[in-house]
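Changelog entry: the Phosphoglucosamine mutase record was regenerated in this release. Current contents:
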Amino acid sequence: MADRLFGTDGLRGTVNNYPMTVDVALRLGLAAGVRFRRGQHQHKVVIGKDTRLSGYMFESALTAGLCAAGMHVIMTGPLPTPAISFLTRSMRADLGVVISASHNPFHDNGIKFFDADGYKLPDLAEDEIAGMVLDTDFSWPYPDSRGVGRATKIEDAGGRYIVYTKSCFPAQLTLSGLRIVVDCANGASYKVAPLALEELGAEVFRIGTNPDGTNINEHCGSLHPEVVAAKVREVRADIGLALDGDADRLIVVDEHGVILDGDQIMALCAQAMMARGELPGNLLVATAMSNMALEIFMRDHGGHLLRTKVGDRYVMEAMRREGAMLGGEQSGHLIFHKYSTTGDGLLAALQILRIMREKERPLSELAGLLTPFPQKLINVRVEKRLPFEERPAIGEAVAQVEKELGGRGRVLLRYSGTEALCRVMVEGENPDKVREYAEDLAQVVERELR
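Regenerated structure tokens:
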């Protein structure tokens, strides 16, 4: 059993294997209902999902548990994760639930929660819920038969989200004349993302908009941006947008088919927001995985970069604490706090398109703001998740690499929040040396954590 029931982004795993089983989902629904059933008002919870085949059974199990705990359930069907965050706020619900494993293949699924303000739950709240789920002797405080919740489906949820995202794009601008390739990864955004772009006037070329329950993220979406890049070159589009399965992350491709990661997008958006006076303290929040080039870029432009633990939830927590308005991850999670309380791929795309329209310049000219340092990431499968300081050999190896990098690079070791992996990342100016250092460190980690 894992140290915590929840990982860095909710609960996630292989379907019908612990913890992604219907009995755990049922208890999760009960526990979340108990945790968020406060006061005498009518308690509501919004449940959304992506397009995975297993979404139906988890939706049913969660709904049963939540209704048994006295919560009224509103089901949206397939919708992006940020849409559920938005609907939770706009419908004055007590809780939002998303059934998705994000960028993982279809045989995985996951469950994550949003509070009434649309923010992902902090560790403490997740641990309270997990405590009830894992306590086999927990006595559920069931309401009487009149207090059981109802379950309904909201038919216009997608339309509400489209209207909201369009409202975050300047009213005086349109996308008329722009050719846009959008890859929805056969996931949650397969309807709403193309429609939103078309309603703003763009000519849209669709990829990954035919989900069948098992093809989510399969050779498409943000994990395979080369697909959208090839289509951009084929149709001579102005931009390509690659979303992941739950559409909370975005990878962008310029008109030449050059792939831009989250760091490059953050640099572009930070510069534009600083110029508009919309970046308080010129502060950008990113994680430990963001490239050193982004840190140097912010410093050279009179700003600074605040790093957090990996996970957009931790980015958002730091943004709230520091009053920051822009944050994100190299992987493509981008948070524009003026508009949203979580990463939103479609919303981020509209902010990039806004810059393109205001500047009337191609993306290739706008986005070349930083040259990322060469970076090598190796995933090492481990048997023990020991604190690194308990293995002196690992510390000595890291110190030696950092000494050789001479302050012009860095080393990062961290455990995956969802898998039995240690991620070994080395960054520096010489790609051959970076690869050599990463491979040597990975061997030490593998040996010490068997």
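The mean pLDDT is 95.
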